[in-house]
Amino acid sequence: MSEGILLSAVARGTLLPDYVRVERLAEAIPQMRAVLEGETDAVAIQATLACLLYETFAQANWCGFYRRIAPSMLAVGPYQGTMGCLRIDFARGVCGAAARTRKVQRVDDVHAFPGHIACDDRTRSELVVPVVVAGELHAVLDLDATDVGGFCQGEADLLVKLVNDVFGAPGITF
Ligand code: SME
128 CA distance to ligand 1 centroid (A)? Predict the structure, then answer.
């Protein structure tokens, strides 16, 4: 059992096979939805998701949110892992690309991504999901891993649905 939700214990830094990770995430998501049921405060949701997704993604060295605080600027929000950069301009990095394009960024090797911001030198792959509600970009969900190819398309697809459902629920205040 992990803290917060019921999942098999996996050591931090373990990259399970793709299909096992997708199954693990699919098992965790209903538990996350149950925990978040009725919560409308976006920061409370972000903090809880950062915690529970970090438990779920054993391969992650960072998991959390950057919030939009100005037209083209993100500031770090609730997260778990090693220290993150405090501010990210939309023009920079993988998070900036997700915020600018509003498209999921799944980067197998960050060394091959022009302008990648190395908050933690050990990070090798990254997955960033934009949080867009009613046409407005409010935040991005960022996950980093120390392995090349740390995130698969199945994980990205499940996270997109989770983020859209949870933050798109009626009455969420950002
Ligand atoms: N690597 C990211 C910056 C955020 S941190 O890694 C937590 C990027 O290029 O956007």
Answer: 9
Query: How many folded domains does the chain comprise?
Result: 1
Task: List the CATH number of the domain containing 123.
Answer: 3.30.450.40
Q: Cα(61)–Cα(148) distance, rounded to whole angstroms? A: 13
Is 3 part of any domain?
A: no
Note down the domain range covering 149: 18-167
Q: How far apart (Å, rounded) are the C-alpha atoms in residues 109 and 99?
A: 19
Is position 173 within any domain?
no
CA of 10 to the centre of ligand 1 (A): 24
- State which amino acid sits at residue 125: S
Rounded CA gap, 31 and 136, in Å? 27
CA 129, CA 142: separation in Å to the nearest integer? 7
- Whole-model pTM? 0.96
Q: Which atom of ligand 1 is nearest to the CA of 79?
A: 7
Write out pLDDT tens, residues 134-173.
999 999 999 999 999 999 999 999 999 999 999 999 999 9
Contact 129, 159 (CB under 8 A): yes
